[in-house]
UniProtKB/TrEMBL annotation, chains A, B:
GO terms for molecular function: metal ion binding; molybdopterin molybdotransferase activity. This is Molybdopterin molybdenumtransferase. Its EC number is 2.10.1.1. Residues 185-326 form the MoaB/Mog domain. Keywords: Magnesium, Metal-binding, Molybdenum, Molybdenum cofactor biosynthesis, Transferase. It is an enzyme of class 2 (transferase). Belongs to the MoeA family. The lineage of its organism: Bacteria, Bacillati, Actinomycetota, Actinomycetes, Pseudonocardiales. GO terms for cellular component: cytosol. The gene is moeA_1. Coiled coil: none annotated. It catalyses: adenylyl-molybdopterin + molybdate = Mo-molybdopterin + AMP + H(+). Catalyzes the insertion of molybdate into adenylated molybdopterin with the concomitant release of AMP. It comes from Pseudonocardia halophobica.
Length: 412, 412
């Protein structure tokens, strides 16, 4: 056998995968579809907020000078010259020596400089007795107090939640420019695979990577088409891929068929067609591939993940998820990372970065392993709330050693 | 005026709103639609994982005793009696003194008790020279190592992410029983409101609560129909509500029209029709209402939020979001809560629990205010990443005081 090339580091392969996917294009969507998307351009306020001086209370608009001496014992009575509900668009100016009945949010009439809340009056509709002397400006929300016309209320790169959508609406935006969600084809390979719900013969297993990776793509903000898994047949695999790589597909993610065995359909079908297959110094997930596959005129980025479910899902976390999130503009494409101390002693192979499944105790800052490092322990992955990283150079972890922890449940 | 009733506490009104919404019903969904849903029943494994002893490596299945003396200098050569790719369903037993070529994931033949990885052999297909002596069990993944048939792999109440969907598929489940997403009608009121994108007359403002609350409902896991805001007309409001409250609507959330003014359409339309309007000792968001509205045969829970955008969104966070999440089975319906020290001195009205908009610095454990406590500061809400709570009994906060902080961005 020839001398094996040294394996690629995790960081090197992350860079290779990251280079495959450019930012997605910008599309303009209605507010109702903007949630979870990332703003592609700043939102500048076309109006000030509030757009006009308005009342913060139900009560009476007055000139402060007119009621300067008012107290509970000695109220000042003024004629009520106008009634201003919210939304009134023809508000007359307030003549000296008069009051206007006004509701919360209604425009303060020109000439008025204070609001007396209804509780400090007798609530009259013809004439009103006012029993307190407000300072000028009391309970008036002045134009631009929240936002000045022409300033940015949301920066490009903002992730749009309810409040961000709310402020965009408030400045009059019915639509927002956001990056398109990346669309991913998910394709599992393996002749041993049977669809969940079907009968299982000896030697067969249920296909789980397709549903799992499609869910992971959607968690990352992308859209996914899950292709039925294809048998280990190179021609059929190429045919399915060529048919399905069409405009609008940003990435193909395969699982299985990439290791050193005699029947490796993905490797056999894509070697020499733009995809490079490598060993990455990590566990789980050593065998990886990435590149741009070309079929005649059509080309598409492809990331080929190993087939063991845990390898597949962990590889997605390490290589694919951050790239999808970055493509749609996320300011923080990576999982939140914290440091925690190991609750136990662990052994680790030198030369491989381990991504082990764990549970974090945030109160005491410790992390412990769930299951084992073996790549077929899927039930343990489903109980984990984090991945923790044992560095490539380490051969073990002592209790109390500090470890990097990736928090997995942020989307839930 | 009559003596005002003491205001309801935040906790009291939370309990009133919580009592309105029972758990939603259970529906069975395909795996592709299960992400983010909450499992209504445990998932019990119908098969073990792995379902059969299988190889963890590409290599050769052997009887360990047959290769006990093998070394690199003195390999043991065995005839290759079978070729076992993954998915082979008719694997013959391994006769003593023979080896079987085997791929990762393929069934270990009866009689074999160890796998020699291909790198420790000459890779022969007729005969194979084996240069290492594996212990019994080496590289064999035994049946049930991950999951035993009949055990629960996912508990009721599990929030379904990619890994949980993966393990459900692996034990053969094509569908999962989950709680239905609560469906919410969102309805804004106010004659001053204009749809974003339309021209604005003096005295009018853009309607922002509808899009904001609909996004907040979806963030919470529900589905939302945003009704066009209706003018301040009691009859028209009742008509719209009666038409739209149909089977499948779990909750109506209104905003506006609930305070002490002269034109309070929601209050006027629903008082005496099952909805109680109260003052809650909180800021923002004092005027609140909740109840079950009835129109003839039809009834539906209603929560009426105040109309100021910040009051509306904060009230949703405090009262509605946890109730929607609990209804769909979430084990942790509330926002994640942490404690942080105030970065500044703040004044606070006695008798009102304040929910102020802030930014958390998780590294130094401090929180600071964004904007002001005023309920029209929507742009500040859009820049906040948390709400922090100033208790009802406090009249101020000193720098360094510990505050309860609700983290807002967990869904992003």
């Amino acid at each position: 056998m020839s001398a094996a090339k040294p394996p690629r580091t995790v960081e090197e392969h992350r860079a290779v995968v990251a280079a495959l996917l450019p930012p997605t294009g910008v599309e303009v969507v209605p507010l109702a579809e903007a949630r979870g998307r990332v703003l592609a351009e700043p939102v500048t306020a076309a109006i000030s907020l509030p757009p006009f001086d308005n009342s913060a209370m139900d009560g009476y608009a007055v000139r402060a000078a007119d009621v300067a001496g008012a107290t509970a014992d000695s109220p000042v009575t003024l004629p009520v010259a106008a009634d201003i509900p919210a939304g009134r668009t023809d508000v007359p100016p307030l003549e000296p020596g008069t009051a206007a009945r006004i509701m919360t949010g209604a425009p303060v009439p020109a000439g008025a400089d204070a609001i007396v809340q209804v509780e400090l009056t007798d609530g009259g509709t013809e004439r009103v007795a006012i029993s307190a002397a407000p300072a000028a400006g009391t309970h008036v929300r002045t134009v631009g107090e929240d936002v000045f016309e022409g300033t940015a209320v949301l920066d490009a790169g903002t992730v749009l939640g309810a409040a961000q959508i709310g402020v965009a609406a408030a400045v009059g935006r019915a639509t927002l420019p956001v990056r398109r969600r990346p669309h991913v084809l998910v394709l599992s390979t393996g002749s041993e695979l049977v669809a969940p719900g079907e009968p299982l013969a000896p030697g067969q297993i249920y296909e789980s990577n397709g549903a799992m990776l499609a869910a992971a793509v959607r968690d990352a903000g992308g859209t996914a088409d899950q292709l039925r898994f294809v048998p280990d047949d190179v021609e059929q695999f190429r045919k399915v891929l060529a048919e399905r790589i069409v405009a609008g597909v940003d990435l193909v993610v395969t699982s299985g068929g990439v290791s050193a065995g005699a029947y490796e359909v993905v490797k056999d079908a894509l070697t020499g067609h733009g995809v490079e297959f490598v060993k990455v110094g990590m566990q789980p997930g050593g065998p990886q591939g990435a590149g741009v596959v070309e079929f005649g005129e059509v080309s598409c980025p492809v990331v080929t993940l190993p087939g063991n479910p845990v390898s597949s899902q962990v590889s997605f976390e390490v290589f694919v998820r951050p790239v999808l999130r970055r493509a749609m503009g996320h300011p923080y494409p990576d999982r939140p990372v914290v440091t925690a101390r190991s609750r136990e002693a662990l052994r680790s192979p030198a030369g491989r970065t381990q991504f082990r499944r764990g549970t974090l105790d945030a109160r005491d800052g410790t992390v412990g392993e769930v299951g084992s490092p073996a790549s077929h322990m899927l039930a343990a992955l489903a109980r984990a709330d984090c991945l923790f990283v044992v560095p490539a150079e380490a051969t073990g972890v002592h209790p109390g050693d500090e470890l990097e922890v990736w928090l997995l449940d942020s989307a839930l």
